[in-house]
Amino acid sequence: MKTKLLFLSMLLLLAFSCKNEAKSTETTSNSSNAALNDKLSDLKGTWELTGFYNYKDNVVVDSFKMNPDFRQLKMYTDTKVMWCKHRPADSSEWFGYGTYKFDGDQLTEVLDFGSTVMDEVIAEKKQFIFELNLQSNKFQQIELDDEGNRIYSENYIRVEEP
Fold first, then answer.
1. Which candidate, 107, 131, 113, places its Cα nearest to that of 43?
2. 137 CB contacts (<8 Å, ≥6 apart)?
3. What is the pLDDT of residues 13-65, one digit of tens each?
4. Alpha-carbon distances, residue 26 vs 16, 18, 36, 101, 160 (angstroms)
5. 153, 141 in Cβ contact below 8 A?
6. Are 41 and 33 in contact (CB under 8 A)?
């Protein structure tokens, strides 16, 4: 009888332990989803280009600040991206519109249409993939070569949250 009682107690203990482990895994999964949603919401908003980095052997070798006469802004919603560039001395227009997604450190923008100049670019290449370095109020989108080496980055600061 004692053996059966001991066996039943261990079985109940094991069942309780498995139930708690499942809850723990579920909580971790929910925490991961919440972290991903927080990260997604971190990109939403309006951003202004502040400068550029040039890379050699994946190390920044040069940096440039934006000319104050030129402005470039990017706006992200839940699924859409739009950017525009203002160059007062140049009559050509620059803007693009499409969708985006990012997963960890990779940002993918797929442009549907843009200005006349951008439509020519989009006809050749619609999808733009960048390495993304996202912080709370700034980010760098880094262009990579075919071998995965960094070439240059556009550096943005947040100017408005959603």
1. 107
2. 157, 158
3. 334 333 344 444 444 444 444 444 455 558 999 999 999 999 999 999 999 99
4. 15, 12, 15, 25, 34
5. yes
6. no
**97 bridge partner residues:** 82, 113
d(CA 144, CA 55): 10
> Pick the residue with more confidence: 150 or 19?
150
Q: What is the C-alpha to C-alpha distance for residues 22 and 107, in angstroms, rounded to an integer?
A: 33
Indicate the average pLDDT of the chain.
80
Distance of CA 154 to the CA centre of its chain: 13
Could you read off the pLDDT of 11-27 as tens digits, one per residue?
A: 333 343 333 444 444 44
- The pTM of this model reads 0.72
Tokens of 105: 């450190």
DSSP letters for 71-124: EEEEEE-SSEEEEEEE-TT----EEEEEEEEEETTEEEEEEEEESHHHHHHHHH
